UniProtKB/TrEMBL annotation:
Pfam families to which the protein is assigned, alphabetical: 7tm_1
A cellular component term, taken from the record's GO annotations: external side of plasma membrane
Similarity-based family: Belongs to the G-protein coupled receptor 1 family.
Function: Receptor for interleukin-8 which is a powerful neutrophil chemotactic factor. Binding of IL-8 to the receptor causes activation of neutrophils. This response is mediated via a G-protein that activates a phosphatidylinositol-calcium second messenger system. Binds to IL-8 with high affinity. Also binds with high affinity to CXCL3, GRO/MGSA and NAP-2.
Any one Gene Ontology BP term: immune response
Name this polypeptide is given: C-X-C chemokine receptor type 2
MF annotations from Gene Ontology: C-C chemokine binding; C-C chemokine receptor activity; C-X-C chemokine receptor activity; granulocyte colony-stimulating factor binding
Subunit text: Interacts with IL8. Interacts with GNAI2.
Highest taxon above the source species: Eukaryota
Keyword terms, alphabetized: Cell membrane, Chemotaxis, Disulfide bond, G-protein coupled receptor, Glycoprotein, Membrane, Phosphoprotein, Receptor, Transducer, Transmembrane, Transmembrane helix
Keyword Transmembrane tagged: yes
InterPro entries membership: CCR1-9-like (IPR050119), Chemokine_CXCR_1/2 (IPR000174), GPCR_Rhodpsn (IPR000276), GPCR_Rhodpsn_7TM (IPR017452)
Membrane-protein topology: Multi-pass membrane protein
Protein's organism: Fundulus heteroclitus (Killifish)
Length: 382
């Protein structure tokens, strides 16, 4: 936990430029919110409107971070898709979920270069591009979270219930993945409809923002965020914690050489999801409560929340880069398939491939002597 806090601190330090001579009050002067109709309602008429911008953020550093995450995510998830599609022994249900998860991460990371340019130069693209890339990002986030839930439920039935009901019916699994993509697309429609290319005079540039006017604008935005909080994070998190909690408890009762490895994979899955997305969701929830009037609304509070949003958003975006490591590369089955694919393509020698296969053959054979071990390997050997 200390290492995680240190990582957040270093990230914030890298993303900020030094402006010690400029006080917080002076930075807040002369800036306005994009929602001009609702911003000054909580302040005296003589008071200057608060700022949504964080002037000392190093936009070039954030743009570079986005590009790095894009490159690593593109390579990692592309390898996952290629290896799973070329599996010689057939794909089970978890492999199908992982492949769709990789597609969702690829869709998400494809928007990062656009947001990188937007953060540094403003929105220089068309109004249609604003709607399209906003919808892509929203749909990929929902799809990724829903697929994580599907994986947790699949492993729960495989280990706790010792059943492969869904795994034996690939058509049903593909239908579930189709429903997940459909739901994610429908949930992204409000953002696609409301997002527009808007000129912000206080920033002297165009932005891609939700064009909401009228007295109910804040209520509409708060309702949309509540939907994101419930369906996009907290409810899936509850399902994942329940499924993986029971799974870990069942693994403790098994006399299997693979239970410790399976536990590491499961714990890594949950921790990565929480560490990447929880800070951002908590910060967005705080901002939602401020907009809804449940928390004190001051310029200093809004400034600090906006600063936290920028830092935690970078951490959340990194999740698409971490997914290939957690769900694929640390698993024995995927490593074997990856090495086999590399050997068939002539990238590695037969000696290296055979030496690794011989090293893992004994451990694989030892599981198959027990039914419980087979269940663990099939469910968690990814």
């Amino acid at each position: 936990m200390k290492l995680y806090v240190f990582f957040i601190y270093i990230m914030g330090y890298l993303l900020l430029t030094s402006q010690d001579e400029q006080s917080l009050e002076s930075m807040l002067e002369g800036f306005e919110y994009p929602d001009q109709d609702n911003t000054s309602s909580n302040y005296p008429e003589s008071a200057a409107p608060c700022s949504l911008q964080v002037p000392e953020f190093n936009s070039l550093a954030i743009m570079i971070v986005y590009i790095i995450v894009f490159l690593f995510s593109l390579v990692g998830n592309s390898v996952v898709v290629y290896v799973i599609c070329s599996m010689s022994n057939g794909r089970n249900s978890t492999d199908i979920y992982l492949m769709h998860l990789a597609f969702a991460d690829l869709l998400f990371c494809s928007t990062l270069p656009v947001w990188a340019v937007d953060f540094h130069f403003g929105w220089v693209f068309s109004n249609f591009s604003c709607k399209l890339f906003s919808a892509f990002q929203e749909a990929s986030v929902y799809c990724g979270v829903f697929l994580l839930v599907c994986i947790s439920v699949d492993r729960y039935f495989a280990i706790v219930r010792a059943k492969r009901v869904l795994s034996s019916r690939h058509l049903l699994v593909k239908v579930i993945c189709g429903v997940v993509w459909l739901m994610a697309g429908l949930l992204s429609l409000p953002v696609a409809i409301k997002r527009e290319k808007i000129y912000a005079p206080e920033l002297e540039q165009y932005i891609c923002y939700e064009n909401i006017t009228g007295e109910s604008s804040d209520q509409w935005r708060v309702s949309l965020r509540v939907l994101r909080h419930t369906l996009g994070f907290f409810l899936p998190l509850v399902v994942m914690v329940f499924c993986y909690g029971w799974t870990v408890g069942s693994l403790f009762k098994m006399r299997s050489q693979q239970k410790h490895k399976a536990m590491r994979v499961i714990i890594a899955v949950v921790l990565a999801f929480i560490l990447c997305w929880l800070p951002y969701n908590v910060t967005v929830l705080t901002d939602t409560l401020i907009r809804g009037g449940s928390l004190a609304d001051t310029c200093e509070t809004r400034y600090r929340v906006e600063t936290a949003l920028q830092v935690t958003k970078v951490l959340a975006f990194m999740h698409c880069m971490v997914n290939p490591l957690l769900y694929a590369f640390i698993g024995q089955k995927f490593r074997n398939e990856l090495l086999t694919t590399l050997y068939k393509q002539g990238i590695i020698s037969k000696k290296l491939w055979m030496s690794y296969r011989k090293g893992s053959a004994g451990s694989v054979a030892s599981f198959r002597s027990r039914n419980t071990s087979v269940s663990v390997v099939n469910a968690d050997g990814r």
